[in-house]
Amino acid sequence: MLLALRIIRGRLLLSSQRTSLSPLSKFRSFTAGTMGDNATSQQQQPSAAADHKPPHPAQRQKAAPRPKKEVRILMLHGYTQSGPLFRAKVRALEKMLAKALAPLNLVPALLYPTAPERLSPRDIPGYQPSEGADESEETDSWAWFRKDEASGNYRLVDRGMVRIAESMAEAIPPPQPQAVAEGGNSGEQKVESTEETGVIDGVVGFSQGGCMAAMLASAMEPDRTVSSPEDEEWVKAVRDANKGQPLKFAVSYSGFWAVPERLGWLYEPKIKTPTLHILGSLDTVVEESRSQGLVERCEEPLVVTHPGGHYVPVNKEWVMPLVGFVRKCLEEEK
Q1: Does residue 21 form part of some domain?
Q2: Whole-prediction pTM value?
Q3: Tens digit of pLDDT for each residue in 171-230?
Q4: Structural domains in the chain (count)
Q5: Looking at the domain assignment, is residue 175 inside a domain?
Q6: Which residues pair with 74 in a beta bridge?
Q7: Which are the contacts of 69, defined by CB distance < 8 A and separation ≥ 6?
Q8: Planar angle of CA 151, 157, 162, nearest 5 degrees
Q9: Which residues on adjacent β-strands are paired with residue 99?
């Protein structure tokens, strides 16, 4: 009987040990359960960052659009031409420039001044007077300067440059209000200063206009010393018109350098303004040596030769070098 009671008591004790846990075991069990519950809670509940949804497009405050900037380019016609005639011949350039500069938020504004010296019929190369023709009749043919065949000097360069300075001054726009930067007071306005932006960004010239374009770019370089007293007045005029800022680029189509010794200061030292020279391999009007002379008087000039004569090529293949050059010069200035 006593043996049976001991057996029963032992079985009860063994059963109790199997079903009860030590304090350490209870702590481990609680910790594991708590971590599991927390893990489940983190998976089911999104984070605060996830709860933060972007505002509806209608609720967003629209940022002020970046204002477009005009790129002002002087277009200088050749001998016997005029500003309107030159524009009619190169209208294709305007369209391609506008398309190329649009991604930069730039809008080209091309200015076509007419030279001051009106030519008579006898001044026009190849002119053959007909019987009874009135040679005093006015023409729509103009020149930036005249060459004295006896001395080789260039007359009236100063008048041509003063006309260019006047055209530059006319191109000065009134101050335009701009949107304030992000975070500013929406009621405030920022005015773009013409002193900061200048007036003319670049120049493109054809033939005699190409010669003038190179001289203009050189004269507007602020570190260039004017060694000829005869030129001081017009140099001051063009520099003042552009607020003392140099041109960003100069393009010469069938251009040439000015031979007279008096103008040598324009080429020594070499012209630092970036230049592009587009020449015709069949040009019989401007000798190759004269065009090459201009190229050699520029620092790091770019030269493109098209298989044509004395004209500005406007087909896409030959306009793209101009477009790429202008865009590159403007991107480097941004």
Answers
A1: no
A2: 0.75
A3: 876 555 554 444 445 444 444 444 445 689 999 999 999 999 999 999 999 999 999 999
A4: 1
A5: yes
A6: 111, 203
A7: 105, 106, 107, 197
A8: 165
A9: none
